[in-house]
């Protein structure tokens, strides 16, 4: 029986795990017809709240993706309906997984244009913070940009790079690239900073903090710099990296041989999440006052 990294609270997932129905690639059935009214209600609450708050904070391609995929507040998306639309756009599809899965199958899915999605949706007491990504984060946050060719190509290239990183023993470095782009990336668009990272765009509070707060650093995109940067997994980021365009993100990834980068940074000290260093393209030097005041755990002002 597959052991989950984080114990599931989803009885449909647990049933499939206990019955040995998890496939070799860690996928399971979505069993959409078994979502409860309460679970659909949570999707409606999250979707309505988040779209109402976002306004024009996200990159325009995010909103275009929502429309193209037909995502709305009415119900948890049924992948049998959503995947044909997504595949027609960029060849990507969503696959259901029990929760967080091991690195190799995760990278393999991405390299083959399959995005792993947790089946469960958060409980009311987890509405603003949960340990692992749920279906709202994964679908609302990730799928709109998977419908954008440039970003979809980047994600597939990242998957291939992840598989290569496992051979180099540089998993931590490649993970930081995912964290600071796919999950918590910002972009310059129309003379302003916009959100494209799924971890931000699906978060009611970080969607505001990442753009408006004076606490975090905002630094120009640099792959080698990112691969040395520590990050926060338990709170708002202390640094955000900003791309000029999705073309920059793709080109800097596919046209860069990471092997020399891995070799150069092997003996270098990691950069703390709060720090800026010589050579950074600093867009905003953060005060770090939110983190210094204890952050989420001390209910610090989100400034």
Key phrases:
303 residues, alpha/beta, Phenylalanine Hydroxylase, five-stranded mixed sheet, two-stranded parallel ribbon, 14 helices, 7 strands, 46% helix, globular
Question: What is the CATH third-level topology name?
Answer: Phenylalanine Hydroxylase
Work out the helix count. 14
Estimate nothing, just give the exact number of structural domains: 1
Major pleated sheet: 5 strands, mixed
The CATH class turns out to be Mainly Alpha
Instruction: Trace the largest sheet across and list its strands.
Output: 4-3-6-5-7
Mean pLDDT: 95
CATH H-level homologous superfamily name: Aromatic amino acid hydroxylase
Order of helices and strands: HHHHEHEHHHEEHHEHEHHEH
- Please state the overall shape, judged from the principal axes of the Cα atoms: globular
Structural class: alpha/beta
Percent of residues in helices comes to 40-55%
How much of the residues is beta strand, in percent?
Answer: 5-15%
Q: Low-confidence runs (pLDDT<50, min 5 residues)?
A: none
- Give the total of beta strands: 7
**C-alpha termini separation:** 46 Å
If classified by CATH, what would the architecture be? Orthogonal Bundle
Radius of gyration (Å): 19 Å
């Amino acid at each position: 029986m597959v052991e989950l990294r984080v114990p599931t609270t989803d009885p449909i997932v647990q049933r499939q795990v206990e019955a040995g129905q998890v496939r070799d690639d860690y996928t399971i059935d979505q069993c959409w017809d078994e979502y409860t009214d309460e679970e659909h209600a949570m999707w409606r609450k999250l979707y309505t709240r988040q779209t109402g708050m976002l306004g024009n904070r996200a990159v325009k391609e995010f909103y275009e993706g929502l429309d193209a995929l037909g995502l709305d507040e009415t119900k948890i998306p049924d992948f049998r309906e959503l995947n044909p639309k997504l595949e027609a756009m960029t060849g990507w599809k969503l696959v259901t997984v029990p929760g967080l899965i091991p690195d190799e199958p995760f990278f393999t899915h991405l390299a083959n244009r399959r995005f792993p999605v947790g089946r469960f949706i958060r409980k009311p007491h987890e509405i603003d913070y949960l340990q692992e990504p749920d279906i709202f984060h994964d679908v609302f946050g990730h799928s709109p940009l998977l419908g954008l060719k440039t970003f979809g190509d980047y994600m597939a290239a990242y998957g291939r790079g992840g598989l290569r990183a496992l051979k180099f023993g540089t998993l931590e470095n490649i993970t930081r690239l995912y964290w600071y782009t796919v999950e918590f990336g910002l972009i310059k668009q129309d003379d302003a900073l916009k959100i494209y990272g799924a971890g931000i765009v699906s978060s009611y509070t970080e969607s505001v903090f990442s753009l408006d707060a004076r606490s975090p650093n905002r630094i120009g995109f640099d792959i080698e710099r990112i691969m040395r940067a520590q990050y926060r997994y338990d709170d708002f980021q202390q640094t955000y990296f900003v791309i000029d365009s999705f073309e920059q993100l793709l080109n800097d990834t596919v046209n860069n041989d990471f092997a020399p980068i891995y070799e150069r940074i092997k003996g270098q000290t990691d950069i703390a999440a709060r720090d800026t260093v010589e050579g950074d393209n600093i867009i905003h030097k953060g005060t770090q006052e939110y983190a210094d005041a204890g952050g989420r755990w001390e209910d610090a002002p989100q400034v």
